[in-house]
Amino acid sequence: MLSATYIVTFVVFFMEALFHFNLGKYGTISLTNLSIPQGQELFDIVKVLAIFSAINSYLVPIVNGWMEGGYGSNAGQSGRISIG
Description:
Elements: H1 4-26, H2 39-67
Helix pairs in contact: 1-2
């Protein structure tokens, strides 16, 4: 089952990817004339987004645990991660 974090990350990053695609392809971003990539370009974007959405949905609970003081020795009483 897909987590809410995975779905939200995928959708938001896909919208961002569309802006980057249009900026790279046409040199401009127009909200009224946004082009969606076709074929292999679309597949490549979806593939990368799927991988990084999965990584993000794996890491978010770990970071939340650190912030709440539940994981590892770096989490202090304040819930902040102490680095160094």
